[in-house]
Amino acid sequence: MSDLHAQVRACTLCAPYLPLEPRPIAQFSSTARILVIGQAPGRITNESGIPFDDKAGERLAGWLGIDADTLHDPARVAIVSMGLCYPGKAKGGDKPPRPECAPLWHQRIFPVLPADRLTVLVGTYAQGAYLPAMKGRPMAERVAAWRDLLPERIALPHPSWRSTLFMRQHDWFERDLLPDLQAEVAARL
């Protein structure tokens, strides 16, 4: 496991395409029964080196019904996004994750995680990769399918400030989905 962590940290595959030096950010262990697959580290996360170490991480932890310490505990929660390095800014947000990253690292990291894990697919990129039958469907439809996806996985919107509008428009998210998600997370932890 330590060799795999070292290999991840040493990766420079996307260096020519990144605005900053590569700083692959992921946390995982053979005991983490929750796997969060997000988009890619943001600027703040890139600076700290801790995945979801920002306001989005606070919201994600709240959705999962855990505290920040649990979210950032690799023995309990793996966080391996579609891109492991900060991709840079784009109009209206960050650039998409680099396409080389997930095919290289997911196939090497996921086999060391427990088979009976809950996979939390955060945002369009993770859902496109791991819910191919739902690709092209609106975010609300992918998220609303949680009863069909649990207990193995669940789709969530990205927990950025923009999710406030999603939650306002879809009151079932907080009322119905989050209690089911939190119960599943508690059972895994």
Helix and strand arrangement:
Blueprint: H1 2-10, E1 34-37, H2 43-48, H3 55-64, H4 68-71, E2 77-79, E3 89-90, E4 93-94, H5 101-109, E5 118-122, H6 124-130, H7 139-144, H8 146-149, E6 153-156, H9 163-169, H10 172-188
Parallel strand pairs: 1-2, 1-5, 5-6
Antiparallel strand pairs: 3-4
How many runs of DSSP E, i.e. beta strands? 6
Weakly predicted, low-confidence segments: none
Helix content: 40-55%
Instruction: Return the string of H and E elements.
Output: HEHHHEEEHEHHHEHH
Tell me the radius of gyration: 16 Å
Describe this protein with a few key phrases.
42% helix, two-stranded antiparallel sheet, 10 helices, four-stranded parallel sheet
Q: Would you mind describing this structure in some detail?
A:
This protein has 189 residues and is α/β, with parallel strands linked by helices. Helices cover 42% and strands 11% of the residues. Strand 3 and strand 4 form a beta hairpin.
Summarize the structure.
This protein has 189 residues and is of the alpha/beta class. The protein is 42% helix and 11% strand.
